[in-house]
Amino acid sequence: MTPVELSRTVLRAVRRAVDAGELSVTVPERAVVTVPGPGGCGDYATGIALQLARPAGLPPRDVAEIIRARLLTGQAGQTDDADQAAHADHRIEDVVVTGPGFLNIRLRDTASATLVEEIQERGKRYGYATGFSGDVWQLQAAHEVRAVVVADALGRIMRSQGAAVRVTCTTRPAPEWETGLGVRLDAYGKRVFPGPLVVNIRPAPALSDPVRLGRDAGRWALLHPASHDGPRIGDDYLVQRESNPLFRVRYAHARIRAVSRNAADLGFDAEPQALTGIETNTGTGTDTATEAKNLLTHLADHPRVLAHAAEDRAPDRLARHLVSVADAVTPLLASVLPCGEEKPSAAHGARLALAEAAGTVLAGGLSLLGIDAPEHL
């Protein structure tokens, strides 16, 4: 269950409470779902009760209790078959109200297997919208290398969320931007095409030439910083060490692919399982329970990150998210393969499935940024 799915589930619970006369509010368009903060618990948390308290004329905790009852289908007692299906196949284990009215949601163990299976099924398109959103945009980049690369990447991300996007530049891009950085534009010139909403792309410019870094490092150097931060174009993006975030992302993907090849040589396959199956101790000395849960949280967050990167015109959000996924999967890789005389078990297959899901997210995210995901590094 992803944060996007959980957000929809929370909104359905609010809508049911409104229909039943328990709340008198306008149902918001979105419920923000995040990792629980200090004092929280469970897998995810939302502050929607605090958002609705004033319009509902009720204390936030009272609003939270109403929504909590609606989220816990079995306790609500007034649901039909269609609404039961809407509760994400009963993947919500428990909901706890903390603080002034935060809803803390714990998912059932089977949710981890379901998430990995979803990533397996959708592949690099995990997190993509399933159809046309109805939005039509024109991204008009200034004639500057960073603006053009940001517009190119942003066009890819917005298309992944179902928008129709035309990427243009005020004048024809320099040839080396196309050959050296892989920039692909739909048109150039000052003409504004009729119909689409126009967004001018003018991030803080690059003060030195990124082409010399090559396509992957050059694009990363321009996309990883927030648009208002000036990009630093240096050779450190070419160095293969942990201080280089691009290296960490690409190295994590290459290691996952190597682990998959080694698992095939040992004769076992990836088999998604509940979190308890992933956590089984293999004697490696690693805390696989914490590692697996941390990684699952980042993988589940991927659709929300893509949606926000498109909505806020911020490809840097995706770049930073990929670093988080890479850093979360790296510790788990030590426990994927059997050690010494140990035989492959169901736990190894479950960890392999989780690691491969992370590899899929890394490859898909890098592709949207226009960067290769290497099989070997």
TrEMBL record:
Record has ATP-binding as a keyword: yes
Highest taxon listed in the record's lineage: Bacteria
Alphabetized Gene3D superfamilies for the sequence: Arginyl tRNA synthetase N-terminal domain, Isoleucyl-tRNA Synthetase, Domain 1
Gene Ontology molecular function terms on file: arginine-tRNA ligase activity; ATP binding
InterPro entries: Arg-tRNA-ligase, Arg-tRNA-synth_N, Arg-tRNA-synth_N_sf, DALR_anticod-bd, tRNAsynth_Ia_anticodon-bd
Gene Ontology CC entries for this record: cytoplasm
Record bears the keyword Cytoplasm: no
GO biological process, one term: arginyl-tRNA aminoacylation
Residues annotated as signal peptide: none
Key words of the record: Aminoacyl-tRNA synthetase, ATP-binding, Ligase, Nucleotide-binding
Enzyme Commission (EC) number: 6.1.1.19
Record field: catalytic activity: tRNA(Arg) + L-arginine + ATP = L-arginyl-tRNA(Arg) + AMP + diphosphate
PANTHER family attached to this UniProt entry: ARGININE--TRNA LIGASE, CYTOPLASMIC, ARGINYL-TRNA SYNTHETASE
Official protein name in the record: arginine--tRNA ligase
Organism: Streptomyces lincolnensis
Organism classification: Bacteria, Bacillati, Actinomycetota, Actinomycetes, Kitasatosporales
